[in-house]
Every structure is written in structure tokens, then in C-alpha cells.
Specification:
Elements (H helix, E strand, L loop, with lengths): L3 E5 L4 H12 L3 E6 L2 H10 L4 E5 L5 H11 L6 E4 L14 H29 L2 E6 L13 H23 L4 E6 L4 E2 L2 H5 L8 E2 H13 L4 E2 L3 H12 L2 H13 L4
Parallel strand pairs: 1-2, 1-4, 2-3, 4-5, 5-6, 6-9, 7-8
Length: 253
């Protein structure tokens, strides 16, 4: 199998750590994000071959440009990591912020998964890691309504594709990485503070990469979040939403 990986949202956090891990495992890594200086700094620090592509994945045409630019690279691992969140009441968060979130968290993942998966299926090899969130496993998230909804979409999409691939006997695999709080730039962008201690981006990345190559469907790093997710599934929906609302209120700076 060709060892070339494309990682979106690679300029920092989980994406950067996944790039470091895959590079150390002999992959050529292709890094994409909006911040060219961050990408160049990361590329210079890697031990193996790399390439950067500056791209704003909130724009569908940029997603298609990225695919067309890289479709001959024989990519075998796609990591859809780009995304962001915003904290606040649904009526108060600016519509343009939410629409950009939907474009980044949903449309970009959908477009890139669709385009690269067709090539992977044709070649009968490849791995896709969609970075979702534990939010995508919950019934909803008051004060982060749009963010939770976008991550639910990613989890649902990934699960459906997983079963299509499995039932057809394909050698292509897809996973959803569903972390809880991670020590990255996410909280400053979202305007919140975590109510529980975050895990490191490195720990999250290591769990994600190992889970992907172990062909897990849902990958949840951290024992605390795994227990919380299991408890949420056993809790009546209205109660779970009320608890989630209190937790989200506690994140407001």
C-alpha cells in the first residue's frame, strides 16, 4: 500500500500530532490548512517527506481544488480533521458563524470523503479517519447546538459508509474519532473553558491512529469520556439534554 497521508486542519492540535505520528511511521504527509506559516513550521519539523497545500475548506470549491490537485498522489490515508465550534445560545450565535461551521465541519468532510473514497474503493485499499467528537455521540448540546449537530452528522455518515464497505467486502476502512475535551486551540476559538480536564492532543492522536489501523468504527479516547458516553446512552433524552446544558453553561468564560 502506498504510504501517503492527507491531513486537513494540520496546522495545530490533533491534526499536527497525527502528522507527526504518520511521518514517524514512514508516511509522506500532505498537510493542509489556512495558515501557511504554521504548515511550513510543522513540515520543517517532520522526519520524512511532506508537502503543504494552503486551503480554506469552508469553501466547497477549495475542497474540490484540493482533491484535483492531489488525486494523482496515490493517497492511502485521509484524515478529515478540520473543524471548529462556537459556544452560546442558538439565538445569539451569528448565523454566518454557524454556516461557516456547517461548511467546515460537514460539507468539507462530506466532499473530501466522497471524492477520495471513490478512488480508494476502485483501488480496494485505504483508510479514512473522520475527526468527530464525543458531542456526536450525545443526544444534543444546548449552548453548542450547531456544533453538536455537525458532529452527529459526521458520526452518522461514517457509520453508514463503514457498513457499506464492510458488507461489500471492501478492503477500505473508515473510522470516526470522537474525543472529549482535548488541549488544543479549540476552546479559545469556541470561547469556552473545559469543565473537565482535557487530554493532550498527542494522546488523542495516538489513540486515533492506532484505532484507525485496528479498523475500529468509533474511537473514543480517554476512560472518563467513554464512561460518560455510555451513561448518556442509558439516560432519558430530556434528562441527558438538561445535564448537557448545565455542563455547557459551566464552560462559559
Amino acid at each position: 500500500m502506498s504510504k501517503t497521508a492527507l491531513i486537513t486542519g494540520a496546522s495545530s492540535g490533533i491534526g499536527a500530532e497525527i502528522a507527526k505520528i504518520l511521518s514517524s511511521e514512514g508516511f509522506k504527509v500532505i498537510l493542509t490548512a489556512r495558515r501557511e506559516n504554521k504548515l511550513r513550521s510543522l513540515a520543517d519539523s517532520l522526519c520524512g517527506e511532506s508537502r503543504i497545500v494552503v486551503c480554506d475548506l469552508s469553501l466547497p470549491e477549495e475542497c474540490e481544488r484540493l482533491y484535483n490537485e492531489l488525486k494523482n498522489e496515490k493517497i492511502s490515508v485521509l484524515v478529515n480533521n478540520a473543524g471548529f465550534g462556537s459556544l452560546g445560545k442558538f439565538t445569539e450565535i451569528p448565523l454566518e458563524t454557524e454556516l461557516k461551521m456547517i461548511d467546515t465541519n460537514i460539507k468539507a468532510v462530506h466532499i473530501l470523503t466522497k471524492l477520495f473514497l471513490k478512488d480508494f474503493v476502485k483501488a480496494d485499499r485505504g483508510y479514512i479517519l473522520n475527526v468527530a467528537s464525543s458531542a456526536g455521540l450525545m443526544p444534543g448540546g444546548p449552548m453548542m447546538a450547531a456544533y453538536y449537530a455537525t458532529k452527529s452528522y459526521v458520526v452518522s455518515l461514517t457509520g453508514a459508509i463503514y457498513e457499506e464497505l464492510r458488507s461489500s467486502g471492501s478492503n477500505v476502512h473508515i473510522s470516526a474519532l470522537c474525543p472529549g475535551p482535548v488541549d488544543t486551540e479549540f476552546n479559545s476559538v469556541a470561547g469556552c473553558e473545559f469543565s473537565v480536564g482535557p487530554i493532550s492532543a498527542r494522546e488523542c492522536a495516538e489513540t486515533g491512529v492506532s484505532g484507525l489501523f485496528e479498523k475500529k468504527l468509533i474511537i473514543v479516547p480517554g476512560k472518563t469520556i467513554r464512561l460518560s458516553e455510555a451513561a448518556a446512552r442509558l439516560t432519558p433524552r430530556k434528562l441527558a439534554l438538561a445535564v448537557a446544558g448545565k455542563i455547557q453553561h459551566s464552560k462559559i468564560k
